[in-house]
Amino acid sequence: MGIDRPKPTIHFGLVGYKFMGKAHSNALQRANMFFELPAQINLSVLCGRNEENVKAAAMKFGWDGYETSWENLVRREDIDVIDITTPSNAHKEIAIAAAESKKHIFCEKPLALNVKDAREMLAVAIKNNIKHQVGFNYRFAPAVALAKQIIDIGRLGEIHHFRGTYLQDWLVDPDFPAAWRTDKTVAGSGAHGDLGAHVIDLAHYLVGDIKAVTGINKTFVKERPEVLGMTGLTATKTIDARMVPVTVDDASLFLCEFENGALGSFEATRFAMGRKNAMAFEINGSKGSIRFEFERMNELQYFCGQDEPGLQGFRLIQASEGIHPYAGHWWPVGHVLGYEHTFVHEMVEFITCITNDKPCIPDFYDGMKCCQVLDAVDLSIAERAWVNIGDI
Amino acid sequence: MGIDRPKPTIHFGLVGYKFMGKAHSNALQRANMFFELPAQINLSVLCGRNEENVKAAAMKFGWDGYETSWENLVRREDIDVIDITTPSNAHKEIAIAAAESKKHIFCEKPLALNVKDAREMLAVAIKNNIKHQVGFNYRFAPAVALAKQIIDIGRLGEIHHFRGTYLQDWLVDPDFPAAWRTDKTVAGSGAHGDLGAHVIDLAHYLVGDIKAVTGINKTFVKERPEVLGMTGLTATKTIDARMVPVTVDDASLFLCEFENGALGSFEATRFAMGRKNAMAFEINGSKGSIRFEFERMNELQYFCGQDEPGLQGFRLIQASEGIHPYAGHWWPVGHVLGYEHTFVHEMVEFITCITNDKPCIPDFYDGMKCCQVLDAVDLSIAERAWVNIGDI
Amino acid sequence: MGIDRPKPTIHFGLVGYKFMGKAHSNALQRANMFFELPAQINLSVLCGRNEENVKAAAMKFGWDGYETSWENLVRREDIDVIDITTPSNAHKEIAIAAAESKKHIFCEKPLALNVKDAREMLAVAIKNNIKHQVGFNYRFAPAVALAKQIIDIGRLGEIHHFRGTYLQDWLVDPDFPAAWRTDKTVAGSGAHGDLGAHVIDLAHYLVGDIKAVTGINKTFVKERPEVLGMTGLTATKTIDARMVPVTVDDASLFLCEFENGALGSFEATRFAMGRKNAMAFEINGSKGSIRFEFERMNELQYFCGQDEPGLQGFRLIQASEGIHPYAGHWWPVGHVLGYEHTFVHEMVEFITCITNDKPCIPDFYDGMKCCQVLDAVDLSIAERAWVNIGDI
Amino acid sequence: MGIDRPKPTIHFGLVGYKFMGKAHSNALQRANMFFELPAQINLSVLCGRNEENVKAAAMKFGWDGYETSWENLVRREDIDVIDITTPSNAHKEIAIAAAESKKHIFCEKPLALNVKDAREMLAVAIKNNIKHQVGFNYRFAPAVALAKQIIDIGRLGEIHHFRGTYLQDWLVDPDFPAAWRTDKTVAGSGAHGDLGAHVIDLAHYLVGDIKAVTGINKTFVKERPEVLGMTGLTATKTIDARMVPVTVDDASLFLCEFENGALGSFEATRFAMGRKNAMAFEINGSKGSIRFEFERMNELQYFCGQDEPGLQGFRLIQASEGIHPYAGHWWPVGHVLGYEHTFVHEMVEFITCITNDKPCIPDFYDGMKCCQVLDAVDLSIAERAWVNIGDI
């Protein structure tokens, strides 16, 4: 049936090699192995500031080479995609430079420190006609993608309620040290942008646009011991450590009304003792409901209001059947997937959109919308009043 | 060991014989049988407006006699306690008359249609030096009482978070008829006062006073078919029924800050498809957490931050051991209790406080505090702003 | 509409006033109040050997009078029903005397110490043409009755598997004292007849007759301290107590093949640490499956193989809707029932069968069938071989 | 601290490229990336009979080369390890040839078609002094490894009960075609050896040796349509397909006594409608209990009998903390792992044992022990009697 064209190869340059850098490196390799991609992914260059560390990481994670300057990286002709996994405050500068160099961009969430920066990034991406995607990986859990299908075919009817929470507990201990994630200038916000951003994106994805918000937040522990060189989530306090102010929220909650009339509640916190990575949501519609908890990510609960009276109940769907989104590429049903698979799936979609010249979902526009809500909530907190999203 | 004094007898007059009237009648009988009360309870008079119905109910529920006028009832000399289970708009008048007649009062929740009325009821009760209790029955589930014990002995430490929901779905169907519960002049509010009141009371009980609130509510279905003579939750639409406006909220949500600095979120709805009587709360503190879901009311989840590292996890306590509150009076562990037992327990406490001349808990003060929060939330919704509880 | 005949009254005489006597007393009263029975139940005579205790219990439990001799009781002309809740070794003698006196009989399970006695009881009951029922109360949990309906309308198809367990832990502590339940001459067997009997009956009820069995059992703790006067499940060891041999099984397991070809597994134990009253079963058929756990007795899980592919999953049915068996007589959906309600329901059925002259279900025949399986399992253990039920 | 020796490289030759071949290929790559192994793993040669397919798989899965003859493969000097993932009937011949060629061997379970073959494989492995491991991958779920730690430090005390089940439903449909897994000459047995083998191994690992067994099994569907070229679990019937007899069990159950006196029950089935990959076990000891369900593989339930009275309950441990076995090499707590991670962990242990010259666990001895129990159960079924493991 015509000529068998060789697959194109897409060369990645990845900035950052910590938690997210590792997750992306793994995802790119798994995508090649478990999916029939329209293009071959090449792990070309890993980029980080510390040469010794980035070199070791490049070898460990299977990259062909490394760079210590992202400015160099984005100018390299042999790179097609810039994948950004740095702390949030570096997203904008790198993304704009990459876009101006006509690289496609995959950027971790939250897209930017504020909606103004996010809008600028989006504008530059559009102007340069590149593909751009944001790392809202939870969309790509099979159970969440199944939830989207259920909603799209009308099985929930008109949506009345969304309630989403993202609960962790790693900051409850006041001796847990300060980190970039507790520094507003680097992270933008605390639980709000780190955890809440995911829930906001899922609300956008599954319910629709948000109309207005009102919120509250709190920093329960006002200062924490400094630890030099700490990275990630694992660190212990140094004796006699200098105390550093915590400039981000430990917890952030808000209520909203959606454009379609549904009511929503959101909570993100790092102070929910015993809750480890408890991202969960429930959506109630006029015909049915769905529930999801990330720590049991292979399960989707679905209540079908059309089931025979007397036999109705939330169905516990083991969302790992071959018929479910993405699941058929892995193992037989019930041979469950984990956190890292969400990254593989988002990369599969990204590669497919690049190769087939289709718009990515979620893209910088979605990333910007999330920042808009994050900012609106913060403004509502500052003003102790409802804020219309349209005014942000 | 001294003289064996005969037990006093406390004579009850109960106003109302529907859902709550049945629950109270049952509870009074069960209390006599399963507990060693300091007084014998006598089911003396059942009161309702329809003579035929109240007579039949009195016989069915084991009452000695009946009345068709609460005004007569409260004046009867042979009655010690007036127990009020009418729709909310009748609470005030009956309670004030009963108090003026020096009867002890048990009143269903919400105590009144608004905090002003509740304050008046409280004042009259205090002036007449009677015992008064409010029907926040969920406090008396063994698992909830156990939660209170856990908090009181400091096992949760400083409280950071309360999140409570009360989800039902019986109004999702737009053909479900109007009822007194959808009429603001009778019920005061909708899900807010009916369901939310329970969650607010539990927050007061377990966490403490609320400082400020902001909320949102909605009436998803604006009018419903009228059904003559419908009572309770079971009814079907008449063909060509007249449409009646729904004047209460279908759902009500709010955020709060507690006086002790904890953050709270609350949701009450009758539109959560698939959720039947899903009253649930979670409390996170600096040392531990607890979780409770009413539909699994015999279970309390408790996370103990002092457990050995690596072996920590929410404990699923089957709160029906002899050592647990109230449970030892019933059956062996695991032989689970149900909804109606909460009413038995509250009556046991009420009788005990009357006999021993101790203050009841929760009393009209607690009922008033709940109304204060309900009103503050409604005001915050009207003004689209935060409202301080102290200003109500 | 004809003459309004007055309801007949059925006079009960209850033998035993401990755990089961209390449960039955409560059930008879609740049945009168919550159900529209065809006859009025009268709690006439409570019977026990210790006059002081039985008198106190009669007053507490609402009985009109008491007897200290069951021989007298069964001869009384004013009694219609003898309800037997004594330890198992007294069932036979009382039941036969009652039947010969033409009393209807409700007898707790296991019906007898062995199938021979059970057959004799059944024969005498049939000969005297009385109504007879056995206290397999778990059949009457709404969720279990719903399971029966689901099976009867063919929703599971051909049954392939039954797996049932009844796990408790109250004998794990070797210091827990000996009791009548650990004495073979009184109890007949240990976990096997006490707990296993319930599971066997449910298997008969839901799946059908058993064809052959093979089993194993064990007494983990061979002797226990004696406590004088201990009753029920609550006791503590006396210092220097005399040690008494345990003559019953602590745990008993068996496999079976049903007559219809299904495979079954059964386990009853008092040594499952942390398991309080964990009676649970699962049934898998060619079209669907059901699961039930008593400690969450208001829930039934149902898997429907006809649900749309991709949306299949066990439905968590909150089996307390008005449409569910028995549930509509109590509270609104989700206002959960407890252990004691199963006794009310079995009494409602018993009264109805007596009044309407219909055969009771389950009756002494079902009780005998259960004893047959219990004996067959014990024989299989003794012979270390499969035993056909038909040979017992 | 001495010379920094370069890491050795271990060259793998993998036989088989279907379900297990894919899982092993993935695991070897992940092990290199996520763990600090004492040796580098090299994916040298993939082996399969169909050249086109194995070549494509080798490219896809990242192997350096391929072979179409396992006889050639085991003789290659550049290969250190032979990894066997073929159907069970090929294990013996390949393993013996590999051992004679002094290759280390990783072999999938069940080790052999019967214990005689397994003993021969073990003897040859020992004679040739090679490392040998069997693919009981479920041991390497973090939650299962944690369960082992809990038992080893005595937290369960004396073990009384083991109950294990492995429930699937992919053969319920009688139209599902015959496959190598339904052919006794290729698979050895059905659910018994495929699923039951895992549960038996876990019982050995966590409880100890089995003393005697009695069982039952069944083939519910006696013949199935043939499909040419079908592999794995996904196939659809051809119209007018020839019917092929099913020569293995659809379900297999047995009871056992362990050498330490504990009682055990086991069930493996492919006919449990709605159950997808429900491998689960519970162990009850004198001091505590544990429970595990594979479909929620990141969770371990642990009941600690030493917890404060009144606050005891099964703890739901999210077994993905850095402190838990293997988990710290992956993601932060609660960022859950999946099925495939168990293979990574078993390979990490295998590589470590090879490099450090330590015995592998589980090895061919464990594989043989599992076959011994499988055979004993089948013999007990044939003879309808208990069989002592020592007699097999």
Strand content of chain A: 15-25%
Fourth-level CATH superfamily of the largest domain in chain A: Dihydrodipicolinate Reductase, domain 2
Oligomerization category of the chains in this entry: homotetramer
Low-confidence stretches of chain A: 230-235
What's the overall average pLDDT of chain A, rounded? 95
The total of helices of chain A stands at 10
CA(first)-CA(last) distance of chain A:
53 Å
The CATH class assignment of the largest domain in chain A is Alpha Beta
CATH architecture identity of the largest domain in chain A: 2-Layer Sandwich
Q: Any idea how many domains of chain A?
A: 2
- Quantity of strands of chain A, as a count: 17
Physical arrangement of strands within the biggest beta sheet of chain A: 16-15-14-13-7-12-11-8-17
Main interface: chain pair and counts? A-B, 43 and 43 residues
CATH topology of the largest domain in chain A: Dihydrodipicolinate Reductase, domain 2
Question: What is the SS-derived class of chain A?
Answer: alpha/beta
The biggest sheet of chain A amounts to:
9 strands, mixed
From the spread of the alpha carbons, the general shape of chain A counts as globular
> Gyration radius of chain A, to the nearest Å?
21 Å
Question: Helix proportion of residues of chain A, in percent?
Answer: 25-40%
Instruction: Please provide the ordered H/E string of secondary-structure elements of chain A.
Output: EHEHEHEHEHEHEHHEEEEEEEEEHHE
